[in-house]
Structures are given as structure tokens and as C-alpha cells.
Specification:
The chain contains 8 helices and no strands. With 211 residues, it is mainly alpha-helical. The protein has one domain.
Length: 211
């Protein structure tokens, strides 16, 4: 029961829809360097520190099966990134014919400094989300008393709920992407690879939006 309570509190405090200051689907807010730096410093980094503190207070990274960045991370990233791009491309292709498209949320940045801050924001956000939805939940599946398949589905569902602000297509994109990232994490036990792939995908989306 304690593992459930800890996971639920983390999710409600850090990720429950609306708590991260996301824009409503109908709004596109301008990119702000100051705003993004504040979000990184006041939300992403403290949230990351909390999740990793809870993970490492009971086991070392080696005991969790996570090592320093290496070849398996490169391989997992090279598998995950094209899969994420393919899912996003198919949804973007199909969604206009079935009603609506994923909401962009934040407008693309303008200028080199803004793009650098955006990259930092995307990478730190992906590290945060992968730390909880993949590393934390999937690694604690035995403590939660759940099998692998159920934990993957739970992880993908909670992850997609955090993207409700993007509308139903954003929800579906996150759900499918969450399943892919979960299976890649379990197959290669690679945190660094999926976090980098997730961050690069988010940057890629902004680049497409700026074209």
C-alpha cells in the first residue's frame, strides 16, 4: 500500500493535469525565455531531484539496473526516436480528416538564445517524465503488485492524462508513445536513451512548427 500512496502523491503533485501550468487547447502562448528558465529551475529540476531521491534512497542505480550512458542507450534511442516520429506523423496525417489536430500549446521560439533555452526545456522535461512514467513506475511494478503489461498500460495512461491539454489527438499520441517508450525501457533497461529520444522528438516538433 505504501508504494501506491507514494506513486499517487508524486503523480498528483507533479503531473496531474493542470498542475504544470499548461495552456488550454484553444490557446497558443508565446515562447518566453524567462518563463521557460523559471519552469526549468522551479519545476523540472526540483521534481527530478525528488523522484531520484526516492529511487536512490532504497537502491543504487546499479541495483535498479541503470548504468552510465553507453551503447545500449544509443541503440534504444535510435529505436525510440523514429518510432515516436512515426506515431506523431501518422496522427498528424489522420487527425484533420477525423476532426481536429493536436494542439501546439506553446509557439515556436524566435532567435538562437530562445532555441537553446527550448532545447534545455525539452531535454529536462523529457528526463523528468521518463524518470517517473518509465523508470519509477516500471521499476517499482513488483512493489505495486502489478505485472509488466498492467504497469505498462498504467504508465501510458497516466502519461497521456498529462497531455489532455493537447486535445484527444495529443492524448492518443502520448498513450501510444508511452507504450513504445515503456517497452524500449524494459527491453534495454535504458533511461538515458529514451529520455534523449523523447527530448529530441519534442524539439523536432517545434522545428516543424517553425517551418
Amino acid at each position: 500500500m505504501g508504494a501506491y500512496i507514494e506513486a499517487l502523491i508524486l503523480y498528483l503533485v507533479l503531473f496531474f493535469p493542470g498542475t504544470a501550468g499548461q495552456a488550454p487547447p484553444e490557446e497558443i502562448i508565446p515562447f518566453s525565455i524567462v518563463g521557460e528558465l523559471a519552469r526549468i529551475g522551479l519545476y523540472n529540476i526540483p521534481s527530478l531531484a525528488l523522484i531520484w531521491y526516492l529511487l536512490l534512497k532504497s537502491k543504487s542505480l546499479k541495483s535498479w539496473g541503470i548504468g552510465p550512458p553507453g551503447r545500449k542507450d544509443l541503440l534504444s534511442g535510435l529505436l525510440a526516436l523514429p518510432a515516436l516520429i512515426l506515431i506523431g506523423f501518422i496522427i498528424a496525417l489522420v487527425s484533420p480528416y477525423l476532426g481536429g489536430v493536436p494542439a501546439p500549446g506553446i509557439a515556436p521560439p524566435a532567435g538562437v538564445p530562445a532555441w537553446i533555452v527550448l532545447a534545455l526545456s525539452c531535454v529536462s522535461t523529457s528526463c523528468l517524465e521518463e524518470s517517473f512514467f518509465r523508470f519509477y513506475l516500471l521499476s517499482k511494478r513488483e512493489e505495486l503488485g502489478l505485472g509488466t503489461s498492467r504497469t505498462v498500460l498504467l504508465s501510458a495512461l497516466l502519461f497521456s492524462l498529462c497531455h489532455l491539454y493537447e486535445g484527444p489527438w495529443g492524448f492518443l499520441n502520448a498513450a501510444l508513445s508511452g507504450v513504445v517508450l515503456a517497452f524500449v525501457f524494459l527491453r534495454y533497461r535504458s533511461f538515458h536513451g529514451i529520455a534523449l529520444a523523447h527530448g529530441l522528438y519534442n524539439i523536432f516538433v517545434y522545428i516543424l512548427g517553425a517551418l
